[in-house]
Design goal:
Elements (H helix, E strand, L loop, with lengths): L1 H20 L1 H20 L3 H31 L5 H37 L1
Helix pairs in contact: 1-2, 2-3, 2-4, 3-4
Bound molecules: adenosine-5'-triphosphate.
Pfam family, one: DAGK_prokar
Subcellular location: Cell membrane
Membrane topology: Multi-pass membrane protein
C-alpha cells in the first residue's frame, strides 16, 4: 500500500512538473477549463460530457508523453541528431493529432447547441 501511494506521488509530481515547466500544458489546461465552463453553461448531455472528458484527457496525456520524450532525448544528447529530431517531432505530432481530434469533437458537440441558441 505504501509503495502504491509512493508511485502515485511520483506520478503526481511528474504532472506538476510538466504544468510548471511547459507553457503548452498550461494552454491545454486553460482550454479544458473553457470547454468545461461552456459545457456547463450550455447544459450538455452526459454522453457529450463523456466524449469531451475523453478528448481533454487525450490531449493532456499526449502533452505529458511529449514532455517525457523531450526530457529523455535531452538527457541523451543536446547535440543535433536526426534521431533526436525525429523523436521530438513525432511526439509533438502526437499532441497535434490529439488536439485536432479534440477540436473536431468539441465542434461536433457545441455547434448544434450554439446554433439552437442563436436561431
Ligand atoms: N538534439 C536535437 N537534434 C536535432 N533536432 C532537435 C534536437 N532537439 C530539438 N530539435 C528540434 O527542435 C525542435 C524544438 O525542440 P525543443 O527541445 O526546443 O522542443 P519544443 O518543441 O520547443 O518544446 P519545449 O518548448 O516544450 O521545449 C524539435 O521539435 C526538433 O525538431
Amino acid at each position: 500500500m505504501a509503495r502504491l501511494l509512493r508511485s502515485f506521488g511520483y506520478a503526481a509530481s511528474g504532472i506538476v512538473s510538466a504544468v510548471r515547466r511547459e507553457p503548452n500544458m498550461r494552454i491545454h489546461l486553460a482550454a479544458a477549463g473553457c470547454v468545461t465552463l461552456l459545457g456547463a453553461l450550455l447544459g450538455i448531455a452526459r454522453l457529450e460530457w463523456a466524449l469531451l472528458l475523453l478528448a481533454m484527457g487525450m490531449v493532456v496525456t499526449a502533452e505529458l508523453m511529449n514532455t517525457a520524450v523531450e526530457r529523455a532525448v535531452d538527457l541523451n544528447t543536446l547535440e543535433p541528431h536526426p534521431l533526436a529530431k525525429a523523436a521530438k517531432d513525432t511526439a509533438a505530432g502526437a499532441v497535434l493529432a490529439a488536439a485536432v481530434f479534440a477540436a473536431v469533437i468539441g465542434a461536433v458537440i457545441f455547434i448544434p447547441h450554439l446554433w439552437r441558441l442563436i436561431t
